[in-house]
Amino acid sequence: MERFSRWLTCLGDALEASDLEALKPLFAVEATFAPDPFTGLVSGRRAVIERLAGEVAGSSGLRFEARILGAGETYGVAHIRLITEERIVDGVLLVAMDARGRCTALRRWSHALEGRG
What we know:
Layout (H helix, E strand, L loop, with lengths): L1 H16 L2 H4 L3 E8 L7 E2 L1 H12 L6 E9 L3 E9 L3 E11 L5 E12 L3
């Protein structure tokens, strides 16, 4: 659980700071991201990072909150909230991790509340 907790903290810090470089070590080169259950996969570390960065670009005062719901050796599940002045994104992340603690697959189920931040 400690490894997943560190990963979530680093993800939140990087998103809050809009620091793309800090996101790189969090994802394996072959990482995939499913932004929601109804869209196709984003494939490859660069594409995943670009997608995440694009989702928070231009957000004012981004704050990331996470609560671990469960974790094992190769996965973690967390309730997350991305809070900005414009909106709140409330959701769940499922993260598959490799032996080095990098994300190999990221799945998200979320709902955005516009104008609530």
